Amino acid sequence: MTDHADLVAALVRAYGEGPGINAGGARLPHRERVIDLCNQVLAVLLPGYFAETVDADRLAGWLAYRLDRLEADLVDMAGAACSVTGTAGARVMVRDTLGDLVGVRALVATDVEAAFANDPAAIDRGTIVLGYPSIQTLAIQRFAHRLYRRGLPILPRLMTEVMHGRTGIDIHPGAQIGESCFIDHGTGVVIGETSRIGHHCVLYQGVGLIAWNPLAKDEHGELKRGAANKRHPDLEDHVTVYSGASILGGDTVIGHHSVIGGNVWLTRSVEPHSVVTSEAPELTIRRRKGAPRG
Fold first, then answer.
1. CA 160, 166, 171 angle in degrees (round to 5)?
2. Distances (CA, A) of 35 to 44, 52, 158, 183, 201
3. How many other CB atoms are found less than 10 A from the CB of residue 281?
4. The CATH number of 26-168 is which of 1.10.3130.10, 3.40.30.10, 1.20.120.160, 1.20.120.450?
5. 188-217+226-279 architecture in CATH?
6. How far apart are CA 203 and CA 15, in angstroms?
7. Sign (positive/negative) of CA torsion 9, 12, 16, 18?
8. Considering only CA atoms, which of 258, 254, 260 is closest in space to residue 241?
9. What pLDDT digit, counting tens, does each position of 92-110 carry?
10. Longest alpha-carbon distance in the chain
11. What is the pTM of this model?
């Protein structure tokens, strides 16, 4: 067997120079358990779609069991997250957030309806719930947002990152999203922490609601962090943003009933009922060398 003494010593020194080790430190939420937690939340919000089939006459008992398990796991992981920053009251945060489940489900139901209303490929609502990545992502983000709003560290971000890895849609738990949100296709969508999205908005794949450089810094030259530093744009009600568009900056507001065209790069606000497009690129089409004639 190879003697790894030199490698062990080198790695120990490397660990001392930066992050990557938590030996003897705070108990952290386990990523695999966070995946299971997301699945539990989906099962409670949308019974029968993301877990076992549920008989209507046994729904109440099934739900009581599910909620007990969800509360226990959530309290444990919230406690681990709070231990890192010294935040108190994990159990209270969890209890209050579970009380939000009815409201979260109502919002998710509007997202399903928005998908059905905006996508002619949507044959039925069951297919939307099972097959549209935006529904899963929005459901978890809406729940995680409640935890985030109550000051729970780490765990809300881990939950939305689980969905980012699963669906390709990256929504920070701090983002505020109104009812009836539809993210069509979804791959590559990024919505930053301080974004606010109004009601009945539609986003297509590759849309970014992101910060704008130069990023704000404090008197010590360090980046201003957190929700108090407004750095992502807002969309008012009934805004549509087509694929590949990037909207940047905390002072940027897209007025209601506006349409932002594909591949637009936008760093300033626009009035309601605006249509923003970019010049079409000039195309050059030529015949390949050696291609047969006729």
1. 30
2. 15, 17, 9, 22, 28
3. 7
4. 1.10.3130.10
5. 3 Solenoid (2.160)
6. 42
7. positive
8. 260
9. 999 999 999 999 999 999 9
10. 77
11. 0.91
